[in-house]
Amino acid sequence: MHCTLRYLLIAFIAFAVSEKTMSQALAPEDKTISIYFGGGSYYIDEEQESDLVRFIQDVDNIALYQIEVHGHTDNIGSREFNQYLSHMRCEAVIYELTEMLIEPETIFQYDHGESDPDYNNDTWQGKLHNRRVDVILRKLAI
Fold first, then answer.
1. Residue pLDDT, tens place only, 14-37
2. CATH superfamily of 38-139
């Protein structure tokens, strides 16, 4: 399939399913990885970068997936700063994905800030787990 047509098809499908969020259950054919960050940081360390590269390399045909990037933070700091921080974490992950020659138009970004924690922010362990970006590959129905 011609590249432009493929991207238009992906964009159309993505628009049709753009209301999907992380809270939606993953289908068996979907794939996910979490990239973890230090407190107040959007720096991806070498280990996390290597994990992301391996994750993407293990996918047979990345064009068959919608890529979602969901940024999260703990609840330390202001709500505004945490929204900014989740955005910058997503941007850092998207940069790494584009370095792997993934087209930026095929990546959908969701900045949750501190508003959608999967872990309890009342515990230190929960805070550590909420400092992350989830990369979700949702299999397209083509």
1. 333 333 344 468 888 999 999 999
2. OmpA-like domain (3.30.1330.60)
